Amino acid sequence: MELVFIRHGQGKHTLNLPDSLQIQDPTLTKKGVYQAQSLQSQIALEERDIVVISPVRRTLETANILTEDISCRKIVSPLVSPRMFPQNPEWKTLPCDRMLNQKLIKEQFPRFTIEEGLSEELWTSGINTIPEQEFNLLAETFLRWCKSQSVEHIYIVSHDGTINSYRQFIKGEKLTRKDFLKDAGWIKQSC
Questions:
Q1: What CA–CA distance (Å, rounded) separates 152 from 50?
Q2: Which of 62, 138, 146, 168 has the most CB within a 10 Å radius?
Q3: Signal peptide location in the record (predicted)?
């Protein structure tokens, strides 16, 4: 089974750093929409595949565009929500990285399903600031779920820090911010 990590397209929260990081619920920019549309020709998504999406607007918009004409399973999960990389216990979640609530996701993205069986705290706080050991337990649970699915590919539409955290966990080697994917970048990872 192969995981394909996809970073969301360019979001408005990156246009005027560092001030723009204070934007709540930023959408994709026009360039970000174009990048998401370009992903359609780069990725051979099929109906039997699964797409797991972070519950943040820019990832939901990216996945919505990417899966526009594909009837695959689309699952929103806080297990792939924003995560700081590297971790610093003194840092707080930025407004641009706050997750949408489940009700809003169901209303605005009705083609997506909400991952069931996760704690309300995980849906509220996500994985952004949790300690490394706690993240590793959740990552192990998520990867076990991925392996239990009878599919060849699972596409994960997420964020640079989250993708690096999962890649580092899977590979067992240190990554840095230099390893971040660019906007709408993607990388395959055997699991």
A1: 9
A2: 62
A3: none
